[in-house]
Amino acid sequence: xxxxxxxxxxxxxxxxxxxxxxxxxxxxxxxxxxxxxxxxxxxxxxxxxxxxxxxxxxxxxxxxxxxxxxxxxxxxxxxxxxxxxxxxxxxxxxxxxxxxxxxxxxxxxxxxxxxxxxxxxxxxxxxxxxxxxxxxxxxxxxxxxxxxxxxxxxxxxxxxxxxxxxxxxxxxxxxxxxxxxxxxxxxxxxxxxxxxxxxxxxxxxxxxxxxxxxxxxxxxxxxxxxxxxxxxxxxxxxxxxxxxxxxxxxxxxxxxxxxxxxxxxxxxxxxxxxxxxxxxxxxxxxxxxxxxxxxxxxxxxxxxxxxxxxxxxxxxxxxxxxxxxxxxxxxxxxxxxxxxxxxxxxxxxxxxxxxxxxxxxxxxxxxxxxxxxxxxxxxxxxxxxxxxxxxxxxxxxxxxxxxxxxxxxxxxxxxxxxxxxxxxxxxxxxxxxxxxxxxxxxxxxxxxxxxxxxxxxxxxxxxxxxxxxxxxxxxxxxxxxxxxxxxxxxxxxxxxxxxxxxxxxxxxxxxxxxxxxxxxxxxxxxxxxxxxxxxxxxxxxxxxxxxxxxxxxxxxxxxxxxxxxxxxxxxxxxxxx
Length: 577
Prior knowledge:
The protein is an all-alpha fold. It contains 27 helices and two strands.
């Protein structure tokens, strides 16, 4: 048993990882092209963070939280700031592809590294499936807007069409007319009715989602230079449109719409947390580029902080403009930026915004399709996945097999499945990665002090949390009692049976972790920033509900089965024993 525990926690030291980085990459068959500079990294971060979040999900978040949702973006920025600082230290100390997976290997050990790597693969894949479907919706709407009709069964996934058709039949049986049904139900009904059949199976598929995924995968396949140029161009266009929205929209803001500022209280503001963190995985995407940066130890930390600051400012300002232009309750639409301009009769601007959303979604797909193969590649180099995933194309210098697999994993489900409802699942994975990176800094400081002390790159500023953390927790508790007493009363109430209790389980666990971490911080003088980052990310995970936790745990269990069936015995560290 002790030997098993030792094997599961075997670590790759910072010194060994740095030696791998400094050694000639060609000896490992991983000679990627170092071409990315600071501006390219910042562009990648902005491309990943400002996408579906700002063109789509910001609407539902604003509808739930009102103008106060701007506070959520500030709170998220602070939470991500703590995580970004921890990411930055790891990136400077370990400039190797693999992101949080590599960082966990150096701090927690192999088993946790595998878990976070498996988690990241889920995040990137499901996130991109949802983005591809959303891109298809915008693209189809623009085509219809210019009079170019496409059959509905070629632009809708199978599940949406099937479910919408059944719903339409039920409503029609109740006496409602087809024209009176919601637009998406009408579209699903028409798609199912008109779709050709093969062997009794309706041929309904979202081909635009397939097409954009194939195009982006091809760009990533042929090289980092092409991906870089495309990402930079898409980000430039996207920022110009966002500045247009802010500058024009500011003239139509009615301050009366900002009252009340938080109509649904703290609960309403926090309801949008999953939509926000769905976008913020961009930090992780930046760190996957380490082996293709000209100066990763200097530029990666700077890029993470700059991307965070720029994106947060844009999110806050846009939230205030949107909720100022129209009453917040009207923003629960799929295209809020275009909607607000249609609402004030600026249809030309609305058309420009709708078209730009296509660019925004494409840039997100590009960054995530770029990042995921490099995680596959790094896990393969460590022996946890088959060697094919780490093969580098002799001409394009990209992990070509991993890139192709990534394209298939995203494109095929996007054809037939409606996975937009799993935004919460992507968010819980992002928060899990952030929490482990923050915790990894604490462990790394304890277990590899010599290696950390000798590296000259960025380090998280040390602030002794011994007394500050208990004071902050006490202040937060007092504020909670003063401004949200109803929530506190509900939390301690045992009424409502299992239906009520199941939603509190994760919060009970968080309180227990907080108590333990507070004691450890007091006794060991732990650094405040990674501790706060860890606690904030864990708290936000409790906001995502038991259903998402159960799905997340099921995915991790599947990953553990694969690890023990293949990775445990084929690990390079295991073979060195």
